[in-house]
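Q&A FORM
Asked by: J.P.
Topic: structure of CCHC-type domain-containing protein

PROVIDED:
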Amino acid sequence: MNNNTTPGWFHGKADENAQNFLKEVDRYIILNDLKTEAAKVVVFSTLLSAGSVADLWWTKLDNAKKTAWSDVQAEFNARWPVITIVEKTGLDYQREILALRIDEEDLGTQVTVAGVLTWAHMQFRAKLQQLVAEAGSNETAGLVYQVRENMPTVIKELTTPGLADWTKFLDEIKNIDTNKLREKADVVRRKRETEKAQNARLTRLEGLQMDAIEILRLQLQCSNLRNTPPGTTLSNPTPPPTTNTASRIRYVPRTPAARPPARQRQPLSPEERDLLHSRINNIPHQPDTAAGIAVYQEQLKQWFTKHGQDGRVNENMQFPLRPGSAMICSGECFKCGSHGHIAGACPAPEASQLLIQEKIWRSIAVRELGNYNRGHATQIDLLLEDEFIQQWEQGKGQGSSV
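REPLIED BY: S.T.
REPLY: Here is the structure written out as tokens.
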């Protein structure tokens, strides 16, 4: 025999992969060119750990089944069957593709993969390419738009919008000029550092302002004490007149009316927030195109059919997002789905605003997860046009009549 590594002991324990052991025995037989059935069976039997479950099984096995190597393999597989592999579904791949992210801070940096130095955006591309290949490029072609929307602004500026082909999109990421990428990423980092310094300075100034207010309050208290005659207290309901000609006022605490205690909303646990984050993209956000609007109308139909006209949106029941509107959790207005203003100052007419279910869903997501998409979301402006409003009026009518 050649000097080849002998397989390890097999015990038959639950945490052992029996099929790997069988493959190691086959490999040993091939490398050592064992020809006879008896030699193969003897090698196998000598690798069963003495006194183990596997050794006991071999002892009790019928001798007639210990002659041919193929019979031994069949009996072994019957006793320790192949572990069933869980295959990912199309929906699983879709969720993984949409959840894949690259942080803006990593752009233009280098990472080591399997001992090889590469760019962070190329490593992201490799992961995305692998998922697309496993899921099928044709089956997931509709996700190209959403994946690009989830990427940092710097990457979006260096790629073509509106692509629906994975090959072209992945090639564009591959062909990004690293010098331009690093320059743009450095600009974003410097801007962020400047904003951070400004926010810190603003916080410090606010603290100084509060100190000044506290000093002024103490000074006013001292002034009132000086104007109070000796032998009197500030709580006296009819204080004697002082040299100060101004009328004094008294502050009387109001007795609050009895009311039932307000119900406090229990905050989500970290596990519940993780589940909410994973469900954000369960209903894909569609582009503002004819095809996207058609898909959106079908999403609304399915939602209202399942949950009814009065279905309540909550952390476990997300709602479709209007095509072309701002990415969720990106600092958007909850009423119209655009950037640049808050809901209290929304200029959109009520008839053109988002469906009430979408307003609630967006507010829940921001309340629990914060605006975590603000850094890489495309800024969406509100455009009020008669034709645009009429189109959305029709869309809302169709969605709510299901």
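FOLLOW-UP: Residues 289 and 323 are 8 Å apart (CA to CA).
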